C-alpha cells in the first residue's frame, strides 16, 4: 500500500475483465483494486483505473473472468499432503485406475525400501477400478513380499498384505469387532476358507491400527497410520496448499487435526509460507477412546475453541464421525453423550453422518442434536452435517433447518464415488461396504449413497456449502472446476444422479465461496469481491456463468491470488 497526496494508491488493479463479485446484489463489474492484501475498490474501468499510482501493478484481464477465491469445506489437508513427492511419505495411487498400476507403483517403492519397512499408499482412485474389484493381500504380496503394505482408502476401508496382517495378529480365528459398545463395529473380509483377504472394513481397520501402533510404540491418529515430525508435516502442508491453489482454492477446512499438526500449521504461517487460509477442525479419535475418556477430554480442555485465530489460521470446532459405510463409529449412546456434553462445554460440531434414507440411523443423530439444543440452542452456532448424501426426507430436512445446521456437501466425492458404487456394486455388497438385502437396485443404492439434492436443500432454506473430502478423492489437475461442475449439473461418473436437483451456476459458485465463509463465521472477511474484504480471487480462462455446458470443464485457472499476492499462475 502506498499513500500519495493523502490518497491510497493500490498495489494491484485488475481491469478489462468480468469481475463476478457474488455480493448481495450479484454485481458484475470490470475492475478491482487491491491494497495491503484487501480489496479497496470495485467498479468500472473508468472508475478504478485512475486510482493507479507509480507503484501499482496494473493487469489487463483481456476479458477474463474473476471470481472470489474458492473454499473447500471438507479436506484432510495434512493427510493429502503426505501423498506429495515433497513429503516423501506415501506411494501415490490416487490416479491409478487399475490394480495392475497400483501393484507397479508399490513394487517400485518396495525396490527402494529396506526389508520390513512399511509401505503406505495414498487413497485409491475413487472411481471404479478397471478389474471391477479391489486389490487383496495376494496382489500386495506379489508387489512387496518383504514389506508390510497399507492402503487406506479414506478413513475406514483398509487393505493390507499378509505381512501386515501377521503384525496385527489378524487371522482366521480373529472375530469381527463390534461386541464391545465402546469400539466401532467392523468386518474382516474372508475368503471361502475363512482366511482374511487383507481387506479390513471400518472397526476392523481400527483394530489393526491399534495393534500396529502398540507394536511400533506409536500414538493414536484419527485417520492416518503414522505420525510425522514437524518438518515432514510442514512440507506436506505446503505442497498440498499449492495443489489447492492450482484449482483456485484459497481456503479450506482441515477435518480432524491433531496437536502436532496444529504445530506445523502454526509454523508455516510463522514462516510466511502459507498460501491458503485454513480452518482447523480438531479431531477426537472417538473410535479409540472410551466414553469416560471423551467426557474427561471435553471437561478439562481449556484451550482455544472455534473462532480463535487470525485470517490465515483459525480453530473451527470439533469433528466427529457418527457412521461410515453403514457402521457406527461409536455406539449411539456414546454419540448422544458426546454431542450433548460437547455442546454444554461450548463446542461447535462437524458431524459426519449416514446416507439419508437409512432413517433410524439419521434419527439417532438428529435426536442427539435436539437433546443438546434443548439444553443450549444450536441455531446460530453453525454446526455442520458433513456429506449429507441421500438426505431427501422433508421431515429430516426441516429438523436440520430448525437447528440451523449447515449442509456440507461434497459434489466432487459424489462425482467419483457414484462411479465406483455403480461399477463395483456386487463387490461392494460382498465386502459389506454397501448395504445389502433391502430389495433396492444398484442404481437406487448409488443414488441413496451418493445423491445430493441441492435444489431441495436450498429451497428448504438450508445453508449449503461445497467441497471435496480430499484425499478421499483427488483434485483433477486437468479439470480444476470439476467439483463446481458436479455441484450444479448433478453429473457423476454414473450419469445424472438426481435430475431436477440441478442448481444455477451462480448458486453453485456461492456454495464454494460466500456460503463456506458464512459456515465458519467469516462472511464479513471473505467469500465475495467487495471493498474491505480479503483480496482472495481467482482469474479464470472463461466465464463460468455463461460458457456452454459442453465447454465448462475446459475452463482453466489462470491465476490464484491470496492476500493480494499471486500464489499460482498457469504456465
Structural overview:
The strands form 6 sheets. This protein has an 8-stranded parallel sheet with strand order 10-16-17-18-21-22-23-24. It is built from 19 helices and 27 strands. Helix 3 crosses helix 4, helix 9 runs parallel beside helix 10 and helix 17 crosses helix 18. The protein starts with a strand and ends with a strand. By secondary structure, the protein is of the alpha/beta class.
Shape: globular
Structural class: alpha/beta
- Terminal residue distance: 28 Å
Number of E-type strands: 27
Give the strand content. Answer: 15-25%
The overall pLDDT, averaged over residues, is: 92
The number of helical elements comes to 19
Strand order of the largest sheet: 10-16-17-18-21-22-23-24
Question: Could you provide a short overview of the structure?
Answer:
The protein is an alpha/beta fold. It is built from 19 helices and 27 strands. Helix 13 (411-423) packs across helix 17.
Essential attributes:
8-stranded parallel beta sheet, alpha/beta, 19 helices, 571 residues, 21% strand
Note the topology.
Elements: E1 2-4, E2 7-9, E3 12-15, E4 18-20, E5 28-29, E6 31-35, E7 38-43, H1 45-48, E8 57-60, E9 65-68, E10 70-75, H2 77-81, H3 99-111, E11 119-120, H4 137-143, E12 149-152, E13 157-160, H5 162-167, E14 186-190, E15 196-202, H6 203-216, H7 230-246, E16 249-257, H8 259-270, E17 277-283, H9 291-300, E18 313-321, E19 323-324, E20 327-328, H10 332-344, E21 349-352, H11 359-375, E22 384-386, H12 394-402, E23 406-409, H13 411-423, H14 425-430, H15 442-450, H16 454-459, E24 464-466, H17 482-489, H18 505-512, H19 514-519, E25 537-540, E26 557-562, E27 565-569
Parallel strand pairs: 3-8, 4-9, 10-16, 11-12, 16-17, 17-18, 18-21, 21-22, 22-23, 23-24
Antiparallel strand pairs: 1-2, 3-6, 4-5, 6-7, 9-25, 12-13, 13-15, 14-15, 19-20, 25-26, 26-27
Helix pairs in contact: 3-4, 7-8, 9-10, 10-11, 13-15, 13-17, 17-18
Amino acid at each position: 500500500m502506498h499513500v500519495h497526496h493523502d490518497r491510497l494508491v493500490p498495489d494491484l488493479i485488475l481491469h478489462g475483465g468480468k469481475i463476478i463479485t457474488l455480493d448481495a446484489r450479484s454485481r458484475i463489474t470490470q475492475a478491482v483494486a487491491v491494497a495491503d492484501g484487501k480489496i479497496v475498490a470495485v467498479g468500472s474501468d473508468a472508475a478504478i483505473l485512475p486510482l493507479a499510482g507509480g507503484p501499482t501493478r496494473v493487469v489487463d484481464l483481456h476479458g477474463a473472468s474473476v471470481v472470489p477465491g474458492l473454499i473447500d469445506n471438507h479436506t484432510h489437508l495434512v493427510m493429502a499432503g503426505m501423498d506429495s513427492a515433497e513429503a516423501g511419505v506415501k506411494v501415490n495411487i490416487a490416479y491409478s485406475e487399475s490394480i495392475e498400476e497400483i501393484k507397479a507403483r508399490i513394487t517400485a517403492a518396495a525396490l527402494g525400501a529396506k526389508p520390513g519397512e512399511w509401505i503406505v499408499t495414498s487413497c485409491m482412485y475413487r472411481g471404479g477400478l478397471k478389474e471391477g474389484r479391489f486389490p487383496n493381500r495376494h496382489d500386495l504380496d506379489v508387489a512387496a513380499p518383504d514389506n508390510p503394505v497399507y492402503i487406506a482408502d479414506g478413513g475406514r476401508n483398509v487393505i493390507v498384505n499378509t505381512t501386515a496382517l501377521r503384525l496385527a495378529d489378524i487371522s482366521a480365528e480373529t472375530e469381527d469387532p463390534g461386541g464391545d459398545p465402546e469400539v466401532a463395529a467392523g468386518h474382516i473380509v474372508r475368503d471361502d476358507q475363512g482366511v482374511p483377504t487383507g481387506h479390513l472394513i471400518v472397526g476392523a481397520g481400527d483394530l489393526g491400527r491399534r495393534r500396529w501402533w502398540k507394536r511400533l510404540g506409536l500414538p493414536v491418529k484419527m485417520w492416518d497410520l503414522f505420525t510425522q515430525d514437524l518438518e515432514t508435516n510442514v512440507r506436506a502442508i505446503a505442497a498440498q496448499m499449492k495443489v489447492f491453489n492450482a484449482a483456485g482454492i484459497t481456503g479450506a477446512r482441515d477435518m480432524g487435526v491433531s496437536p502436532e499438526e496444529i504445530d506445523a500449521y502454526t509454523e508455516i504461517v510463522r514462516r510466511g509460507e502459507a498460501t491458503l487460509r485454513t480452518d482447523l477442525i480438531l479431531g477426537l479419535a472417538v473410535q479409540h477412546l472410551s466414553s469416560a475418556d471423551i467426557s474427561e477430554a471435553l471437561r478439562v480442555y481449556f484451550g482455544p475453541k472455534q473462532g480463535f485465530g487470525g485470517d490465515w489460521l483459525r480453530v473451527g470446532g470439533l469433528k466427529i464421525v457418527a457412521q461410515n459405510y453403514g457402521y457406527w463409529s461409536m455406539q449411539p449412546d456414546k454419540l448422544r453423550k458426546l454431542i450433548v456434553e460437547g455442546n454444554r462445554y461450548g463446542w461447535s460440531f462437524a458431524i459426519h453422518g449416514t446416507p439419508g434414507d437409512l432413517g433410524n440411523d439419521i434419527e439417532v443423530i438428529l435426536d442427539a442434536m435436539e437433546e443438546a439444543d434443548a439444553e443450549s440452542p444450536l441455531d446460530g452456532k453453525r454446526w455442520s452435517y458433513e456429506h449429507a448424501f441421500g438426505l431427501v426426507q422433508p421431515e429430516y430436512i426441516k429438523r436440520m433447518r430448525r437447528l440451523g445446521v449447515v449442509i456440507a456437501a461434497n459434489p466432487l466425492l459424489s462425482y467419483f464415488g457414484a462411479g465406483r458404487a455403480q461399477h463395483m456394486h456386487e463387490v461392494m455388497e460382498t465386502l459389506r461396504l454397501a448395504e445389502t438385502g433391502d430389495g433396492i437396485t444398484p442404481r437406487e443404492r448409488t443414488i441413496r449413497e451418493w445423491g445430493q439434492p441441492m435444489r431441495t436443500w436450498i429451497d428448504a432454506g438450508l445453508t449449503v456449502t461445497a467441497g471435496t473430502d480430499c484425499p478421499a478423492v483427488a483434485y483433477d489437475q486437468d479439470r480444476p472446476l470439476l467439483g463446481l461442475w458436479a455441484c450444479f449439473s448433478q453429473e457423476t461418473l454414473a450419469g445424472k444422479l438426481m435430475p431436477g436437483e440441478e442448481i444455477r451456476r451462480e448458486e453453485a459458485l456461492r456454495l464454494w465461496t460466500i456460503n463456506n465463509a458464512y459456515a465458519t463465521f467469516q462472511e464479513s472477511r471473505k467469500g465475495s469481491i467487495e471493498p474491505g474484504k480479503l483480496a482472495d480471487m481467482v482469474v479464470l480462462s472463461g466465464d463460468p456463468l455463461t460458457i456452454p455446458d459442453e465447454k465448462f470443464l475446459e475452463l482453466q485457472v489462470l491465476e490464484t491470488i491470496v492476500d493480494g499476492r499471486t500464489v499460482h499462475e498457469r504456465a
